[in-house]
Amino acid sequence: MAAIDVKDSNILQSTRTKPVYANGVYNNPWTTWVEPSFCKVLYRMLVKEKDHSKIPSEKQELDKHLPVQKPDFDQLMNPPKSGVQATWIGHASVLVQLDGITVITDPIFSERCSMFQWIGPKRYRPPPFKIDELPVLDAVVISHNHYDHLDHGSVVSLNKKFGDELWWYVPMGTRRWMLDCGCKNVVELSWWEEHRHSPDQNITFCLTPSQHWCKRTATDTNKALWGSWVIKGPNHRFFFAGDTGYCEAFKQIGEEYGPFDLSAIPIGAYAPRYVMKSQHVDPEEAVLIHQDVKSSNSLGIHWGTFKLTYEFYLEPKTKLAEELKKSDLSDDCFVTLNHGETRIFRK
Ligand code: ZN
Ligand code: ZN
Q1: Whose atoms come closest to the Cα of 212: which ligand?
Q2: What pTM, to 2 d.p., does this model score?
């Protein structure tokens, strides 16, 4: 498939905040950002913070509250001509089908989101299907290199299954890692840069900002960039927020690329707030993002799969419903899906 580079199109410079980059390290330009190291100090000072996650150990109990469905493969193989079809695989992994293409966000099918598969956060809900069962994928978007978003085993398996037909979209600083995994078509972008994926289908991928950070090893903190993604088709638009704290980026994204038919926005891994606030939104802030980017529909992600933080494991879903009640938004404009569930979203 031919790909035309249309980096830095003629979007107005004034509304596009760029990342700070100095001495090979990226930084957040946002006044709302607090360094994680500072958070850690605070965390140690207040280490008595209670863990409220209470994830049941019995499968039966988990199946009752967080059922994992077998997907409707017929629906996945035959996406609708109109609308955005989304399937929640778990955590931040979403299978998105719009305007004739099939894309997966931050794929993780592995048992643990960690440097090693014998230690580190283990998933408490399994993936609803295997990589081998996926419909033909056109592209993968990666928001940043944390282990719960960029998983080595999943990248290698996806590359093995789909090979050179698959395109990988990553933020600056991650291309080399992808090439070392054997991936061939790797497009690396900075914030507000665009890449025309398919001239025939008129589909463009754009890396947009977020408020987060990167780290995989002891020495690579913020040597790669983080971000959110816009997929712009001739008829539909999808926004993937990645991992993020709340910041002014989302109003800018709404102005430049909104409205969206569907946004995938994180709603979990937010407690305790004084540690997590600048890097992970809570449901209240997720609703602000939904409004800022001008989304008709949103899907809550980044919850219910790995234990990363201290909020009750079902709280992201219940808090989201409470926040929608408090606002003047309808309760079906921002939803959660079961693992493996597919839904078609329209304007
Ligand atoms: Zn992260
Ligand atoms: Zn994450």
Answers
A1: 1
A2: 0.94
